[in-house]
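Propose amino acids for all 337 sites.
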């Protein structure tokens, strides 16, 4: 046998050995099931499997954050992308949830249906319209997906401007955000607080008009949070850390690569890429966990009677910064604590 043949054989053997080692390493990697919702700032979670190192992530798409939370607490999944509101709600109900990372904030928009004569951010005009409609016995019909971040953003903003969603208007729950556009088009609601990319879709089709970005309340623009359970952390700490690392890598990627974000929205919603790109104007990638704002959200939710008790102590105790600290090499003081 020639030297060349021997050399090629050695190279081939090395490649096979490396491939076998890689396959063995992949086989040894722990598996994590991760759930995420259908919205512009949620859908990039579908990219985490490709960014994962040392863990095998199965990313599962759900219609809403409520569905994702249900899957987490029922132990159908291990890690969940939900919202700060879901986190507080879960604690109020006594569920075992631990926040381990932020993800993307923003994405909420209050919109009016065609025929509602209001200028953007004209809260005095809105209050006057509400009073007129109440006087006629035809309360303004305001919708959102009950339990989602957009609902609490809207309720907090309304409260700040002296509007009680439970008394001054007729609240309509539309659980699936993808149904919001149709509700406006059919004239079933007068105003809705929806989420991107559906807000951009509504604006582009003319079904609705932006009234306000509802961030003038305790929650600000805080939206998404990555949570898991204490049993997952206890039994699979390295897998949780690797999953958080994939989220951190995702956030860093989204800050510079909007094209892949647009492609992901297009893939999961079928929405036009131009509309998807427009939706990202109201999105802010951020892996920090904002403690003070979390506690402010908890207080606001109790004031709005969204929860039944003061969960501030639990909300602070269940913020686990250790995985972010390990991944980013930053102290929690730089990660929102």
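Proposal:
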């Amino acid at each position: 046998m020639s030297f060349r043949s021997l050399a090629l054989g050695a190279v081939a053997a090395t490649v096979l050995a490396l491939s076998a080692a890689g396959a063995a390493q992949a086989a040894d990697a722990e598996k994590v099931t991760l759930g995420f919702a259908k919205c512009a700032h949620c859908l990039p979670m579908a990219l985490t499997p490709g960014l994962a190192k040392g863990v095998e992530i199965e990313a599962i798409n759900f219609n809403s954050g409520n569905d994702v939370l249900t899957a987490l607490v029922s132990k159908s999944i291990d890690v969940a992308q939900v919202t700060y509101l879901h986190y507080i709600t879960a604690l109020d109900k006594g569920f075992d949830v631990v926040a381990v990372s932020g993800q993307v904030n923003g994405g909420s928009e209050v919109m009016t249906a065609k025929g509602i004569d209001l200028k953007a951010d004209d809260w005095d005009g809105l209050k006057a319209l509400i009073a007129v409609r109440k006087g006629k016995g035809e309360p303004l019909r305001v919708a959102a997906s009950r339990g989602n971040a957009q609902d609490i953003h809207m309720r907090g903003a309304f409260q700040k401007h002296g509007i009680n969603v439970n008394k001054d208007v007729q609240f309509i729950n539309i659980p699936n955000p993808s149904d919001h556009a149709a509700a406006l088009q059919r004239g079933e609601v007068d105003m809705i607080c929806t989420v991107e990319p559906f807000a951009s879709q509504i604006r582009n089709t003319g079904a609705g008009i932006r009234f306000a970005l509802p961030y003038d309340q305790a929650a600000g623009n805080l939206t998404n949070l990555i949570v898991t359970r204490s049993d997952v952390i206890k039994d699979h700490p390295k897998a949780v850390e690797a999953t958080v690392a994939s989220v951190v890598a995702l956030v860093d990627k989204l800050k510079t690569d909007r094209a892949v974000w647009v492609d992901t929205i297009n893939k999961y919603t079928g929405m036009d890429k131009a509309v998807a790109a427009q939706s990202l104007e109201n999105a802010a990638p951020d892996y920090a966990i904002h403690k003070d704002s979390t506690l402010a959200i908890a207080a606001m939710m109790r004031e709005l009677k969204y929860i039944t008790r003061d969960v501030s102590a639990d909300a602070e105790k269940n913020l686990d910064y250790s995985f972010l600290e390990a991944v980013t090499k930053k102290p929690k003081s730089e990660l929102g604590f």
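The CA atoms of residues 3 and 148 lie 68 Å apart. Residues 1-26 have pLDDT under 50 and may be disordered.
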